[in-house]
Protein 1
Amino acid sequence: MSRGFGEYVVSTRGEHLDVVGFIHATTAEGVAEAAAKRYGDLSLPLLDIVIDVEALQREGVEVEWVDGAPRILGALPMSPKVIRAEALLPR
């Protein structure tokens, strides 16, 4: 997990925010599908990170919705005001 630094800037696995232009995110209902699709080949534990969209926007980072999926339009502050780690996802 990236709690050791101030901002998370990975768009999706292997792609930087600066290249893609946004950070991929999902809703609570889409977590299992996204984890299987993007990280299903890994044996490492994954954390379910919950983002407070309103707190994120108060930090000046906008979120847009495309086809029902959120896109974070800037660096994600690794602040307890914005995010919290819920639990390890089953592997």
Protein 2
Amino acid sequence: MSDLNQQIEQELEQAREVCDTSGNTSEECAAAWDAVEELQAEAAHQRSSEPEKTSFEKYCDDNPEAAECRVYDE
């Protein structure tokens, strides 16, 4: 994920440079910002696809010996 964040930062810098040189209303500027938006959307998608642990799961990760966290094979 940090690689994706790094890539977003690079695209942001590039988009700013492109817009400074070719103008804010140019097609190049719009394309550069589209690339940034696509990467940000991918980052959001990756964050949402990672299931968040419940408080109980976090508790059991920290306290595997607790009675309520034991798992029995039948």
Protein 3
Amino acid sequence: MSGFCILCLSWLDQTNPTVGNNDYNSPTFKKLLDSLQQQSWELELIISGFAIFGLFTAYEPIRVEMINAQNEDSIYKFVVYFILNIASSILLFNLLLHVILRGLWIGALGLRYVSGDIEFEKLRYSERFTKYLQKRIVSFDRYIANLENYCSVLFAISFLLIFYVLAMTMIILSIVLVANFVLESEHLPERVGNVLGAILIMIIIFGMFLTFIDFITQGWLKKKKWISKIYFPIYWIFSFITLSFLYRPLVYNFLDNRFGKRLILLLAPIYIAILLVTSLEYRHSNYLEKDQRSSDKFANKENYLDMLTEDGDFPGEMTIPSKVITKPYLNVFVPFSENLENRVFAYNDSLKLENDRRGLTSSIQINTNWSDQITSSRQKDSIRKVYLKTINEMYSFKIDTLEMDEDFIVTTGINNILGFETFLKISDLEEGKHIIRLRRKRKEKDAIVTLTDVILPFWYFKD
């Protein structure tokens, strides 16, 4: 960090000392900007280096947390980490490309110092090749200038693209907020909420479509006089929804520059190509796949604790210690998820609170009440007992043809994941292969049906 500060200070010392004068109309300030932009490549490389190091460090933890949120059915947490993953990927790709081009640019400058411009006459090529190369290359200085332009624009557009990701997120968030607080509002009559929510969502989608059309056509809707009158209020509203007022000068500085336009159009197909390439996979079999769910014929490693050895490995809907069990008991762990709690509420609706506490919340608590209905520790403990009793009533086990109904307790398992744990007595089982099934009761109208959620194979051999 101290080295970074020294580099920044030495860089500032080389510029105009009147840094404090920020009157943009002042000739002194314009002179300062001209001086800064001539030497900006130094800070570009410093920032790119630190950013790439930080992104490489943070990328894997972000990906792991995204997978964890997906496994826990935590939609808010998943969206946050998914956006961070996309932003990190875009920024990492652009900054790596920027560093490569800057390296090429520095190399070209060094070569120019040694050999100057290209002298086509000394190459002694035929007249046809000489004219062609002179037309295509023109001069070595032009090549260096083009590299400089690409590097500068690419560095700026890297951070602009992050704002575009943020803008898309804000639009999706707006639709979600309308759905939660208008369509499903308990403070509005159902009919009014449905009509008002549908109108607001249609307005947001229509505005999003027009904004996207204006973006890909690089301002076509703003150029047509009669269309611009209709589009202006939508543009004004969406400038707040997408937070474009934060980065609008960058956008229009790109659009009024032919070179910037070309680079934006060039990057779009590159991103699409990268997306397609990363989605490719080679199939080795017509029938077998690695990511199948466990069954009586397939054992997925997500269901066996001793096989979850990597940071990105998370348990499936049910886990047991190993494929081979040598002890007279079987430890079973069922991870908690929001979907599991929804099933509990559907089975025992008395547990469902009027004000659902799930979702995004602050760690700063003014009081510790769950709701207006639950005001004491005794009530909380009582509710938890009913909750766990419902879990034990819903879930049971079957090993081969043997019915088992052991009680769960709440615990934390691998990677500190919250879940339910129990131990099944298996000392009476014969040695060899067995199939364990996690069974769940579900209410359907006036009847209760039993479903099989998970099927796992394991082998039992006495120690």
Protein 4
Amino acid sequence: MQVEQIYTGCLAQGAYYIESDGEAVVIDPLREVQPYLDRAAKSGAKIKYVLETHFHADFVSGHLDLSKKTGASIVYGPNAQTGFDAHIAQDGEEFSVGKLKIRVLHTPGHTMESTCFLLLDEQGKETALFSGDTLFIGDVGRPDLAQKSDLTMNDLAGYLYDSLRNKVMTLPDEVVVYPAHGAGSACGKNMSKETTSTIGAQKATNYALRADMSKAEFVYEVTDGLTTPPKYFPLNVKLNKQGYESFDEIMERAAQPLSPAAFEEAANATGALLLDVREAQDFAQAFVPNSINIGLNGQFAPWVGALVMDVEQPILLVTPEGMELETITRLSRVGFDHVVGYLEGGIDAWKKAGMEYDHIQSIDPTELAAIMQADENLKVLDVRRPSEYVAEHVKDVENFPLDYLSDFMNELSKNETYYLHCAGGYRSMMAASILKSRGFEHVIDVAGGFKAIQETGLFEVSDYVCPNSLRRQKDAELA
């Protein structure tokens, strides 16, 4: 028996490969399926099933392509309705994989079709639970993503409470828990950085699995503090339910190298978003005018989903050389399939061709401290999330979360100079690039972010709540 977790950090997502006696299953695969095909070929195994724990909202699954390439059956739990051939399993149904069995545990709550898969070893012992978004390490799935007119968030939370207590918490303590996500995913609010655990450990430490917790307490605690889900989530659910274009076709169409002149022509002809995925400080030094920076070195795909409003908008890429295909792959994971091409040779080729380029000034925190001391009316914006800001922030600095930047840009003036910081510099450059592309010429990035600011010891730090920050968050949730 082999159980392998295939974890993708930029999505905080776990897919699983299970093999026994020449047969294999893949659970919750990513859209690019070649790694699973290669893994099966390595040991001469046949992929028999593709198991889906639910209709994922935060990424496009590879179930269709993997099924077409292998002949494997796609399996969902009860209540699933698909636009393609799939086996809709019954609660308690078992599937044989070599000498193993996998039992379906229907666990509605995160969504109504949410299902866990329980692995039984060669002796029939309950060994591992592939818990999808029902149970995370330190948290449970958010119950607000599948609301309908006749099904509220509280209704779903009530279903989740029953699923956990009747199906999950009754399992032996030694059963290993393999969730679909870890820390950084928007599918929960309190997930651990650990990517595996046991039922016993979660019963002892997970706030949502307290033995003395009533359903009313559970509903309140699980729904309290949920932020607005990224706007691309509904599209991903739709693609996973109804089907999508083959990943191979997307790669063939998108992987088009463009000379600087052709890149500029394509930008003018298509109105494409210019997406530069280099590291923040590399971007700051030189970039194609009106480009947006979202670095590959962070949670790239979720941030693209959160900040790029139109998933069907054409996209032109500027990447480090050799990272073009990786960038297209990561975009496709969250349903951004309309890449027109990429700048061949990157920014160096652009500059060598004599094309116009822009830059963003970046200063260190000691420079910021000196400027703030000389000008008490200096406009400094903390673009971290409200929860980060509330915990600790520079006194008198306003919170202007990156997540809501486009919604509340009318509060800023193009005549002002703004100094932006986040936690470490990744998000502040995103914010600066967005503002620059919208005509805010006077934006300055604070390199190193709040971490570097604290390390100087030159700033007074506060922990009170900023009313404007909370208002922005509330307004965005109601929008």
